[in-house]
Automatic annotation (TrEMBL):
Gene Ontology process terms (BP): cell division; DNA replication
Function text: Involved in regulation of DNA replication.
Keywords noted in UniProt: ATP-binding, Cell cycle, Cell division, DNA replication, Nucleotide-binding
Residue span(s) of domain Cdc6 C-terminal: 300-374
InterPro entries noted in UniProt: AAA_22, Cdc6_C, Cdc6_lid, ORC1/CDC6, Orc1/Cdc6_arc, P-loop_NTPase, WH-like_DNA-bd_sf, WH_DNA-bd_sf
Organism: Methanospirillum lacunae
NCBIfam families with a match to the protein in the record: orc1/cdc6 family replication initiation protein, PRK00411.1-2
Residue numbers binding ATP: T63, G64, K65, T66, T67, Y207, R219
Protein name from the UniProt record: ORC1-type DNA replication protein
Molecular function GO labels: ATP binding; ATP hydrolysis activity
SUPFAM superfamilies given in the database record: P-loop containing nucleoside triphosphate hydrolases (SSF52540), Winged helix' DNA-binding domain (SSF46785)
């Protein structure tokens, strides 16, 4: 029997709650030494003012891609070199203008004036600043699959990688980070970009069960007071994390299980607290994707979720009829949004024989859950 002791109202199981936050950078970061060494090697020419080699980082969500790059970039920030690293979260910055603004900000310490400014002008200022300060830039486009709508990825790569043509003396390296394993970048990239890109691919494989266990245990030791989560309970969380295939699910489960235990005024996390936590944590990926949508895209997936509940096989043709009426959108933007939802793995689009451009639409999540998290 787990010992049940009442907690004082202000008592907590968390020694350091930050350890379970999504943007926390762990001190202990194992199992990615090879990938980080390879990436550092590619960037090395930039230290002395040469052009860093380009890279593609590929791996499913929660395999440490973002954190690895952040760690290397923060090391670069700490040393005195000629290379300025800029990591851009493309879920948020998903246009040329906003990506270039991030680079500009990093170089100059302040944002470009927004009024009447174009991406061309911002890039001109970036180039000028690179030449004046004698700096090279390495840009990591994190979660770059968000740029695949409206060909934005090609456009930004073109600007960055051909900068030396428009502004001789400028040198830019690019790291493209992709979480969607089905994306074939070589097919997404057009020939004008391909001739200057030629990236080295670095693969981040999913963690093995023992690795997940050790990573999570590290957090437990740092984040909880001793005895809060026994190893046999951590094994259950590890198994769930393995099944979900995303380390974020495990970290989220640690936090929620402990909150559940606190709520029940217990000092130790039990099987039941974990079971309750999993019901919510298994949707972290869904929540993570929904958060990144625009209002219009949210309205559309809401429409799809409602229509899916009414059953019948949903097709793009039928859905467009509804979307046109309810959301007042044209076919082009409708189809682009549907494709984006597909690339985010929120739904699945399938060809249908003999129906022209119409596709079958299947949601990848329970429509009720989608409506709930919206
Ligand atoms: N090797 C590791 N050691 C410790 N924590 C890790 C490790 N790999 C990933 N994490 C943690 O897992 C979460 C997801 O990692 P992240 O780098 O965002 O993955 P990705 O960018 O591949 O989706 C983050 O909270 C991160 O701190
Ligand atoms: Mg990431």
């Amino acid at each position: 029997m787990p010992k049940k002791s009442l907690l004082m109202w202000d008592e907590t199981l968390f020694r350091d709650p930050d350890v379970f936050e999504i943007d926390y950078i762990p001190d202990q970061f194992n199992y990615r030494e090879n990938q980080m060494r390879e990436l550092s090697f590619l960037l090395r020419p930039g230290l002395k003012g040469g052009r860093p080699l380009n890279a593609i980082i590929k791996g499913t969500p929660g395999t440490g891609k973002t954190t690895s790059v952040r760690k290397i970039f923060s090391d670069l920030d700490d040393i005195d070199s000629m290379m300025v690293p800029v990591q851009v979260n493309c879920q948020i910055e998903n246009t040329r203008f906003s990506i270039l603004s991030e680079i500009y900000k990093k170089l100059t310490g302040h944002g470009p004036s927004a009024a009447g400014n174009s991406f061309k002008r911002v890039f001109e200022s970036i180039a000028q600043s690179m030449i004046e300060q004698n700096r090279v830039v390495v840009v990591a486009l994190d979660d770059a699959n968000y740029l695949m709508v409206e060909n934005e990825l090609n456009k930004i790569l073109y600007i960055l990688l051909r900068s030396h043509e428009a502004y001789p003396g400028t040198r830019v390296g690019v790291i493209v980070i992709i979480s969607d394993m089905e994306v074939d970048l070589s097919r997404e990239i057009d020939s004008r970009v391909r001739s200057v890109f030629s990236p080295t691919e670095i693969y981040f494989p999913p963690y093995a069960e023992a690795e997940i266990f050790n990573i999570l245990r590290e957090r437990v030791l740092q984040g909880f007071y001793p005895g809060v989560l026994p190893d046999d309970m951590l094994r259950i969380i590890t198994a769930h994390t393995m099944a979900a295939g995303d380390l974020r699910v495990g970290i989220d489960m640690l936090k929620r299980s402990a909150l559940n235990a606190e709520m029940a005024a217990e000092r130790e996390i039990s099987r039941e607290h974990i079971r309750e936590a999993y019901k919510v944590s298994k949707y972290v990926h869904l929540q993570y994707s929904l958060k990144s949508l625009s209002t219009e895209e949210k309205d559309l997936i809401k429409l799809i979720a409602k229509a899916s509940k009414a059953d019948e096989q949903l097709t793009t043709g039928d859905l467009f009829e509804v979307a046109k009426k309810d959301l007042k959108i044209g076919y082009t933007s409708f189809y682009e949004m549907v494709q984006k939802l597909d690339s985010l793995r929120l739904l699945n689009l399938q060809f249908k024989e003999g129906r022209g451009r119409t596709r079958l639409i299947n949601l990848r999540y329970d429509p009720d859950k989608i409506l709930l998290y919206l």
